[in-house]
Amino acid sequence: MTIDTLPDEVVVEIFDFYIIVNDRGSYTPLNTWHVLVHVCRRWRYLVFASPRRLNLRLAYHGHRPISEVLDAWPVLPITLISRLESSELPKSDQRWDNLVAALESEHYNRISEIHISEATSSHLERFAAAMQKPFPNLTYLDVSLYMSRFSVLVLPDSFLGGSAPRLRTLKLRSVRFPSMQKLLLSANGLVKLTLLNIPYSGYISPDAIATALTAMPRLESLHLQFRSPLSFPEPTNQHLPPPTRFVLPALTELIFRGVYPYLEDLLARVDAPLLYYLRITFFKNPNFDVPELRRLVGHTENFKTFDCAVVSVFNYSIMLDLKTEAVDHLRLLAIEIACKELDLQVSSLAQLCSSSFPLISTLEELNITESKYLLQSHWKGDMDDTRWVELLDLFTAVKNLYLTDEIARHVCDALRDPSRERVIEVLPALRNVFVDGPRSFEHIQGVMRPFIAARQLSGHPVAIGHWRR
After folding, report:
1. Least enclosed by CB within 10 Å: which of 93, 204, 254, 398?
2. pLDDT digits over 79-107, tens only?
């Protein structure tokens, strides 16, 4: 059997698979379907007869004037794309002339997606000026400022005419938008909202975000990332009654980076019963107080069971991941503390976990690793290794402890001489310690001998073995 003998609906199904596979992993949509329409008359007919089934879009990069491109193809939704490498930026003015002209042309109402990445501030100023009107069919908007670590793009109040009723995905990086709340309140069809590298000058209060979220019943993914620890919530009157909490019925993914009071203020206003992916990064703080985070984790059904915990040490942060081997969907609860001092990393994580992650007390497997890019100087501070005991104390059900080479030296030093009363209080259910790396194995066997002997006498023996991660 050849493809010519297959029914039309089967051929279209094959086309759909071909387009999906070839577009997979691409940052922006490609004109993959162009190849298909040049094969033969039948294929060309089937492709253009199935624009919705194949999700046909005309990807426009600005290499030629928009009129020349549109004259060659049927009427299709347009995707504007500008993803420039740094070497291209000096040569990109003509492309931007064409892209801006497309936004200002009579065909602007056919634009359904806009992907702007790594653009200069001057380019984006022209882009913002051309976007000061409603785009009736716009469903996807992704704007990122080139070299955006310190730069800020300011969007005018009239951006998108203050209304985006068909917008489904909104991604902004390094953007200050005074009328952000107004736009979000009008974008009640949003499914994915991503605001990255939010500058201090672009601060949005938790109350403003929460108010906007009330108008987004279809929102599935919320990602808020602040540039610096200056993202403190506005002072509130402690005598005021607690804010009214409302449900985000479709939210499954929440990613946050900022100070803990901001997240606490936001979580005091929302509930997300279907949440299964939670990733939090806090800037360091001498005293974490997170009852709302604790409530969210404790009341979310998808977070009731996990298989293991992974603690990862990096040069500038420490992270705890709670993971599951379930195959239905990826459930993840991760919390990271941005801090470069090792002793503060460990003690801060212990403090935070003791108050917000009580479910770790049921885990039977703990993996503590260091990044392979970790600097040796990270270990040369005056840290008291007993700080590790503060963290280990939380894992009362752990039976198997996995340690990478350098971590093992410090953790085992902390366990070497516990008091007789403490010998079964620290990791009381522990049965096995697995060490990755032969360099530390003999050292650890010697260091742990008093601990192992004491556990043996107490009737809670512990064995040490090799592990290869």
Report:
1. 93
2. 998 876 544 544 567 888 899 999 998 99
